[in-house]
Specification:
Elements lengths: L1 E4 L15 H8 L2 E5 L10 H5 L3 E3 L1 H7 L2 E3 L6 H6 L5 E4 L8 H9 L2 E4 L14 H20 L7 E3 L2 E3 L3 E5 L3 H12 L3 E5 L5 H7 L3 E3 L19 H15 L4 E4 L14 H5 L6 E4 L15 E5 L2 E5 L8 H4 L2
Parallel strand pairs: 1-2, 1-4, 2-3, 4-5, 5-6, 9-10, 9-12, 10-11, 12-13, 13-15
Antiparallel strand pairs: 7-8, 14-15
């Protein structure tokens, strides 16, 4: 059997690092094909792969590989050219892209979606959702700091003192907790909100203040995702978030409901009350966004507030984000 590692399109990550190749070959007894330049975006030249794999072009890889591993799915056109015996491993996001299931079924292809691996102790070594979310949370704070026109930490100088930036994190899952930790390391004052009661202790352990809104529905089986809430709770939530947002220099939003549109946590009226120069980084952009004006993979300005929508910030750190 031949395993194929493709070069991602518009993504610097790679599906398999060179150091894993000897172990895969030894344990599975397979031949590995790597598309030319597959690791270049992550500063991994072909020479590092060539010792344990055959470097080929994309056409040859798609024609010969029985198992194709990728960070992002192949195109519809490439799927259509594959043999029905081909097995695919990638991030298909069937909840957000249900049309993919139908297309793969029509073509008779077998696909394993890495984002469907449960968030359990036994599966954590394969949990790409959590690992990518952690990197995205870290990166979100750095992006916010780059776009903010003031310091993050408190500065005491001969010329005077500067107060620390105020950061509000909405959603304290994996991405949110990493954002909290990173913002705290940079010296910011951090507040965080989450509907899950279990998040309070985690938030406080990182040195942030937990914003509580009474009456939230909690579901421990949701795998770290938010769950839909009652309208009464949402009204209280909006009022609380608006009050905190009006004082914030940075807002990081991470809340998603699996299989549904992301909850709107920062509506237009909240943005109108924010300070000019404030920055919002919306990590739920691909599923509709937590912010009223979010556009995925775009940065916009509204009423003096910078709104950055990007659900895949982990791709900006390909060396650590590669699988």
């Amino acid at each position: 059997m031949k395993i194929g590692i493709i070069k991602e399109q518009n993504d610097r990550r790679v599906a398999m690092l060179p150091g894993l190749l000897p172990k895969v070959k030894e344990q599975l007894g397979v031949e590995i094909l790597v598309e030319k330049g597959a690791g270049s975006g992550a500063s991994l030249p072909d020479d590092l792969y060539a010792e344990h794999a055959t470097i080929v072009d994309r056409k040859k890889l798609l024609a010969e590989a029985g198992l194709i591993v990728s960070v992002n799915p192949l195109s519809d056109e490439e799927h259509a050219k594959l043999s029905k015996e081909t097995v695919l491993v990638s991030r298909y996001e069937p909840y957000n892209r249900p049309e993919v299931n139908g297309k793969l079924k029509e073509l008779g292809l077998t696909a394993y979606s890495l984002d469907m691996i449960p968030r359990t102790t036994l599966a954590q070594a394969m949990d790409v959702l959590s690992s990518m979310a952690s990197i995205a949370g870290y990166r979100a704070v750095l992006v916010a700091a780059e776009n903010l026109t003031r310091y993050f930490p408190m500065m005491i100088t001969a010329a005077g003192s500067i107060r620390p930036a105020r950061v509000l994190v909405l959603g304290a899952g994996v991405a949110g907790l990493q954002a909290i930790a990173t913002a705290r390391r940079l010296g910011a004052m951090v507040e965080a909100f989450d509907t899950r009661a279990a998040a309070k202790e985690e938030v406080q352990s990182l040195g942030a203040k937990f914003v509580e809104v009474a009456g939230a529905r909690d579901d421990t089986s949701a795998g770290g995702y938010a769950v839909e809430q009652s309208e009464e709770f949402l009204q209280r939530q909006r009022a609380e978030v608006q009050e905190r947002a009006s004082k914030a220099d940075v807002i990081i939003t991470t809340a998603q409901v699996r299989g549904r549109k992301a909850p709107l946590l920062v509506p237009e009226e909240t943005i109108e009350k924010m300070k000019p120069g404030a920055v919002i980084v919306d990590l739920a952009a691909s599923s509709g966004g937590n912010c009223a004006f979010t556009q995925d993979r775009q940065t916009i300005q509204h009423n003096g507030v910078t709104i950055i929508g990007d659900s895949d910030l982990s791709a900006d750190m390909p060396e650590d984000a590669s699988l």
